[in-house]
Amino acid sequence: MALTAADLQRRHELEGAPDPFPSLGDSTSAPVRPSVPTNGEIHVDSQEAFPSLAPSTATAKQPVTSAWGAAAGPRIKSTTISDSITLSAIDLSSASKDGKPTTLSEVMKQVMTKFKVKIDASTNQKTKQTTFFLKSESQKELDKAKRSLTALLSPVISSVINAPASTISTVIGPKGATLKHIRDQTSVKIDIPRKDVAPANGHSNGHVAVPEDEDEEPTIPITVTGPQPLVTEAQAMLNAIIATKTSKVTQRVRDIPAHILPFVKARRTFFEQAAQGGEVNMNLNSPAREITVSGDREAVVRVVEAIKSTIESLLSSLTSFKIQLQKRQHRLLAGKAIDEIIAKSKCAVIIPAPEDPSEEVIVWGLGTDLASGMQAVMEKANSQYIHEFPLPGPISLSRQYLTYMTRVGYPKTLSIAHPGVSVYTTPEALVSNAAVLHVELIGEKPAVDGAVRQVSELMGKLIGATKEIQIDWLLHRVIQGKNAKKFKTFHEAQNVRVFFPPETAEQSSVLLVYDPTSPNASPNPVEKGKHLDDVGAELLKMARDAADVKSKSISVEKRWHDAVVGQGGTTLNAIIGEDKTLSIKLGADAGDASTEDIILIRGASTDVERVAKEILQIVEDAKNDEIVNSYSVDFEIDREYVGRIVGAGGAGVNRIRDQLGVKVDFNDEESEKEKEGKKKKATHLKAKVKITGRKENVEEAKKRILNQVERLADETSEVLKIPHQYHSGLIGQGGKYVTRLEEKYGVKITFPRDMGEGEGRTRENLKADEVLVKGGRKGVASAKGELMEAVEFEKENNNVIKFSVPTRAVARILGKGGASINDIKDSTNAQIDIDKGADDATNITCRGTKKGIAAAKAAILEIANQVSEEITVVLNIEPKYHRTIIGAGGQGLRDLIVRCGGPTDPRLQAGLVRFPRQGEAVSDEVQLRGDKTVVKKLQAELEKIVTVLRDRVVLGVEIPVAQHRALIGRGGQHLNDLQSRTGTQVQFPGSRSYHQTGEPENAEDLKDVDATNLVKVAGPRAACEKAIEELKASARPAPALESAQAVIKVPFKYHHFVTQQGQLFRTLRSFGVHVDQSGVPTKPGIPPQPPRDGVVTARIDDEADGAAAETQWQVVSNYEEAEEGDSEWTLRARDQAGLERAQETIRGAIEHAKEMTHIGFLTLPDRSSFPRIVGAKGANVARLRVESGADITVSRENTTVVIIGSENAIETAKEAILRIAAPRSRRQND
Question: Do the record's keywords include RNA-binding (predicted)?
Fold first, then answer.
C-alpha cells in the first residue's frame, strides 16, 4: 500500500505532536501518543528553552543554598505558567461526538488530557460569562490548549471579506505560503474562489471585468469558516494583508455643477494644502465635470472632503444674473477667458454650447462681486473686433465651400497668415440645419480686415470650382485603395482634389474641388468645369468597375444577434473583413419598423451572398452551441514548459482563451506511479493538456501550444557577470533599453531585484552581480554580445561620485522649476540624483564620465558655498507699496537688483527679494536673502524708496483731452522723459493704473472738471508740483469744446459712404468738432460680389476676342439688404462757425450717399491694364471719379474694379475704364 508523505510523517511522528486543531467534523480521533523530542530542534516559543519574563509567569521561589552543598549539582528548574480566557457564550454542538451531546466537564477533561494542562472554570450567573483558568509547565502547550478549548466551546460561524482582485495574489502568497500560515495559526477554513469561477462585482462569466474607473476595482469574496474568536483573528490578519496593498486609492468627485467648476478649479492650491504633505495627484475633466484624486489614502480622503465642502459652500453663497450678448461674442468668453475673468473679478461666466441658439450669458459670483463680474464680462466680450463672413451662394454650395475649407485646414492657415486673428467656422452640428453658413474672424480690426480680404479672394476663386458626385459609400475604400496613384494624377494633371466623406458618416457624396491655391490654377470657369467633369466621369467609371452594390435582408431571431456580433464585436468584424466594404445592420438599426428579427446586409454582390451564408451558419452553430463546444482534445507536453505557456498570472493561456474562445486545462500533478519512477531514474515528466471548444478553434489552440513547446525546447539560458552598479544604465528609463534587446533577439533578460523578502525577489535565484538571459540559442548569443558591449560603454560613462551639501542649499541648487540643476546636467552631461531629506545634510549622487561628474560636483558646491555665505534680512514694507517697487512685469525689481550689484540673470535674481505672493496671507514682510554685500545695499535702497513712497502724494491737474496724445508722445517718449526728470508717475485717463493710483488730494478743487480731462500725478509733493507746472506749460491752451453742440441723425445704411473710412471724422476734427456716435452698423457697408454662375454675363462689345469674352460686368442694388435704423451723432465744437461747417459737411455726405444706389463689379481678364486705369499717383482714377460722379476702387488683390454710384454714373465710369483698358489699336480706332 502506497503511503503519502503526510502518512509517513505521522507514522514516524516527525511533526513533534499530534495535530492541535483536529477537524471538528471528524467523529474519530487518533489516539494521543507521547511526543518524542527530536535531536537539535529548538522551539523559540518553548517556555523551557526561553523562559518568559512577563509578570504572568508564576515562578516558584527557591531557597538560598550554598554552592558547596549537596544540591549544587545539576537541577531541573520547575516553572508553572498560568493564563485565563473568558467566553460570553458556550456552544457545545461542535464538541459532540457521533451526534451525541457532551458536557462542559468532558470537554475540559479532553483538553487537559491532550495538552497536559490543568483547567478550572468559574461562571458568573449575572453576566452569563464563564472564565477558564489554565496552568501548564509549557507556554506552547498552554497556547494550544487555549485555542483548542476556544474552538470546542465557541459557535462555528462563516464570514465573508470582499477583497480587491489585485490583492488576492498577496493574500495567497508564494505557492500558498501566506494563506497556509493563517490557516495553521487560526485553524479556520478559508475559501477563495478560483479565478475562472470567481464572481467579480456580481459577474460570473469567468473573467474579472475591467473597471471603467480606478476607484471601482472588482472584489473577490473570501469566506472564513470556524469558531467565532478564531474567525475574528483570521479576519484581522487578512485585513492587515489587504491594507498593505490598498494604501493607494483613487476617488472621484463627480457631477460638479457647471457654474461651480471654475471656482473649484481656481482653488487648486487650497486643495493641495488639504493633503497635509501627503502624496496626491489631482486631474480635472472639464467636459465630464469631475475631479479625480489619487494617491495616499488619508490624503485623498482629506482632499476630497475639502473639494466637497467647497462645492457645498459655493452652492449656498453664489448668486447669478443673466445678460444677452450676440452669439458671436460668446467665443470671446470661452477657454482661457473664463480663467482671466474669474481672476480679475472673482466671478465665473457660463455660456451656452455653440450649437445652442440661445444668446443668454450667466455670470455667477458673490453678490458683492457681480458688478465687477459684469464689467469684466463686457470688457472681454468687446475686447476684439468680430467679423462674420457669410459664405456665398445657395446653402448646398456654401456647404461645399465649408467642407473644402475644413478638410484643407484653411482656418488654421488663415490664422497663421494673419497673426492675432482667430478663425472659426459654423459648428458641424449646425451645418445640416443652418440657412446661412459663416466664417467668423476675431482679432484687431486691421488684421481682421486683411483676413477678410483673403477669404473674399478665396471665395472668388472657388466660384465654379466645386462639384459633388454620388458614389455609394461602401465603394469609397475600394476606390481609394485601388486607384491611389490616379488621385495624385488628378491633382497634378487636372488640378482637381477629391474629398471622400469620413467612413463613419456613411455618406455617398464625394466633393471635387478645382484647387484654388495651385499656381497653375486657371481663372476661366469653363476650364474649371471641364476638369471637374473629366475627373467626375473617371470616378464614376471607377465605381462601376469596383462592384455593383446590392442589399439583402435575412430573417434571424433577435436572440441570436449577439452570436452574430460576438464578444466585443469580434465575430462581426471577422465577417466584414479588413476592407470594410460591407455594411451589416441588426434589428432596429436595419430600418424595418415592423420587426427586429432581421439583419440587413449591403455591399458588393459576391460579398453579400457570402456573408449571408456565414451569418446563417453562425446562427445554426449558436443553436447547437452545446454540441459544437463539446469537442475536446487531450495531449501531453513536457511539464517543464507548463509555467512558460501559462504565463505570469495566467497571461499566456488567457490570451489563447480570449482569442480563440476555448477552455484550456493543464494537469501536472504527479501520480504515485510517476513518483516511484522518479525515484528510480530521472525522466521527463509529462503534463496533460485538455482543450475544449469549437473543433476549428481547438485544433488551432493545440497547434499554437505545440509550436510554443517546440520553441521552448530550443531555449537556453546564460548567466552573465555584470557589476550591479551598471544595471540601471543597461535597463534604461522605464526598461526601454532592455525591452529593445528582448524584442530584437526574442529573449528574456532578468536583472536581480532587491534581495529582501516578499515580492521584491525574482523567481530566479540571482546574485547582485548576475544577469540571466533566456531564449533561443542564437538570440541569447547575440543579446549577450550586445549586453557586454553596453557594459564596456557604461564602465566608461557610468562613473559615480557621492557627496553631501547643506539641505538649505538644495532649493538654490535646483533653481526655479529645476532650471539651475538642468543647466548643470546639460553642460556636464552628468546624471544627478538628489536625495533630499529632513536632516541638515542632503546626499547627492553624480553619474557620468570622470570629467563630467567632476565639473557637476564643482558647480553644485559653488552654489552651496554661496548659500552658506548668505544672510537673510526681513523688512517691513506696507503692501500698498509692493506693486510700485516691483514695477510692470517685475522690471522695477530687476533694475533695483542690478543697481545694487546683484546678478543680471533673472534665474539668479529669483529669491534675492521675496514679496508676499498672491494667495498668501496679506503681510508687510519682505525677505532679502543672498550675498551679504548685495543684501545690505538692497536693504538701504529699499528703505530709501519706501521713505520716498511714504512721502508720496497724488495731485490732480486739468489737461484738455485733446492735448493728451501730444503730451504722451509717440511710444510714450514724452511721458517717460517727464517722469524721469521729475521722479513722478503721471497717469492719464484710460491708462491701466489710473484707477489704482488713488484719489487726488485736491479732488475737491477739481470736482467740476470733466473726468476725461483729469490727469493724476503721484510722487513726492515737490516733484508733483514741478511736474504739474511742466504739464501746464506744455499743454496748448484749448478753448472749451462744449461752447457749441448739436445732434444729427445718420441712417445706418449710409454710414459707410458718409464716413469714407474715417476721412469725414478727420475733416471734422480740423473744424474743431468732436463726434460721439450712439451706435454703428453691424453689417458690411458694401454687399459682396455675387457668384458669377448665378449672374447673366453681358458682352461689352460686339467683338468676340478672347479678352472681351473673359470680361464680366455685374450690377447689384446697393441698399436692398442694408441695415435699418439711425445713429445719432452728437457734435461738440469750439465755436458756432465750426459746428455749422460740420453740419453742412455731414448733410452733404448723406445726400451724396443717397445717390450711391448701385454697385458695379467689373472683372477684367488680368491686371495688366490696371496701371493705365490708375494713372500716375492715381491721376486717371481721380479724373474718372470727377467726370462720372462715381466712387471707383481698384483692387490690389484681384482683377475686379468696384464702381459705386447712380446707375448712369457707374455705366459712364465702366465705359471709360474699358476704353482705357482696351488694347492700343482699338483705342486708336475709337
Answer: yes
